Amino acid sequence: MTIASDDARPDAHHRYQAMREFLESMDDTLPGKFEITKEGIVHDMMAPIGPHEMTTLHIRKRLEKVMPEELVAHTGTPDVEAESEGIMRHPDVMVISMEDMDVPGSFDPRTLIAAIEVVSRSNPDNDWVSKVRDYPLLGIPIYVIFDPRTGEGAVLSDIHSTPNGPRYATRKDFVYGEDVTIAEWTISTENLPRYSSQ
């Protein structure tokens, strides 16, 4: 599914609203995770499996040990949404203050300190391509990717303007076993689970 280009802004708004209403109507009726991107609805059909969920849990716990008490590594709902951009995403982990969580509806993506994704085995391009494009559009200053397929990841930061819109200017790759710094806090990536080769 594809939404209208920026040339048709009012039409794009209506299409976004239609996609949003569709997702609300599908609430809990289909497995997997739904998000809205510039291209349309993304459906990661597979429910998260053990290594994905365990990685998310390890990251959350490790971050919350080193961050100030007023910040959380949130792994639940709601989504982050920028209706003006026609984007609604649901990061696996959102580093955000408790104060900024206390809002009705979706979180304002510009209040996130960082968005963290654990790469899905079934749809890795969603994390490595689409979200690399969407998160700077949303104004999320830091995007971190953990990839249990390869035992590698990347920290993307420093949003800057390009002819194709805002993009991250800095990318720091890491391999599992190294320490990784997310904003001001450094955590270990030791013993993070990997997907099996099957």
Automatic annotation (TrEMBL):
Cross-referenced Pfam families, in alphabetical order?
A: Uma2 (PF05685)
**Highest taxon listed in the record's lineage:** Bacteria
What SUPFAM superfamilies does the database record attribute to this sequence? Restriction endonuclease-like
Domain Putative restriction endonuclease, residue spans: 26-156
What InterPro entries does this protein map onto?
Nuclease_put_TT1808, Restrct_endonuc-II-like, Uma2
- What's this protein's name? Putative restriction endonuclease domain-containing protein
